[in-house]
Design goal:
Elements: E1 11-14, E2 17-27, E3 37-44, E4 50-56, E5 62-64, E6 66-77, E7 80-85, E8 91-94, H1 96-99, E9 113-118, E10 121-126, E11 130-137, E12 151-156, E13 161-165, E14 173-177, E15 183-186
Antiparallel strand pairs: 1-2, 1-5, 2-3, 3-4, 6-7, 6-9, 7-8, 9-10, 11-12, 11-14, 12-13, 14-15
Length: 187
């Protein structure tokens, strides 16, 4: 496919690496006879490494077919995460190094996860925008703490630590953004 036909979300192969396009900048020259260039912000699949690429409009990129299947987290198989397809219950197994930092948001029975497949092989996951996690350890609220808006650290049931408002206490279930890793409210 031509660089001018590439859209956000497309999956392409470049230098024997698979990338997903996240952002596209188009720049047109001011003078006569100049070529339009496209600057792509791409992230490798499954590693998630950022790569910037500039191409002319007529340059070719090889498009790959990425399939997204809705699934739920089922269980751990050693270091691997196993997700079950929501429609036909096909198990998809992904290694911990592919899941990476997203492991801190995965809880038993988590639904709304999308497993990304290339040639029927799972290569990455996409988490729901927010997940419910339990606060297991946070300092007690200070008197008058609601008058000021000071965050405090909280350790969550999956082992990650985030900043939460002073009024949150141990045992509470909270919403955590999987995009920013920030507190999103009580669950």
């Amino acid at each position: 496919m031509k660089a001018s036909d590439v859209k956000k979300g497309n999956v392409v192969e470049y230098n024997n690496t698979v990338y997903q396009i996240r952002d596209i900048e188009r720049s047109a020259p001011q003078g006569r006879g100049g070529n339009v260039t496209f600057r792509f912000t791409m992230y490798s699949v499954p590693a998630g490494n950022k790569y910037d690429l500039s191409l002319r409009a007529d340059d070719d990129l090889k498009e790959l077919d990425l399939v997204r299947r809705e699934a739920s987290f089922s269980y751990m198989d050693g270091d691997a995460f196993v997700f079950l397809d929501s429609e036909d219950f096909t198990p998809y197994q992904l290694d911990a190094n592919i899941i990476g930092d997203m492991a801190g948001y995965i809880t038993e029975g988590l639904e709304g996860v999308y497993v990304q497949l290339i040639d029927d092989a799972p290569v990455a996951i996409q988490l729901p925008p927010s997940v419910v996690l339990e606060v297991v350890d946070t300092p007690p609220e200070l008197k008058g703490g609601t008058a000021t808006k000071r965050p405090k650290p909280a350790k969550l049931s999956t082992g990650i630590e985030i900043q939460v408002p002073e009024y949150i206490s141990n045992g509470e279930k909270i919403l955590v953004s999987t995009v920013t890793g920030e507190f999103n409210g009580r669950a």
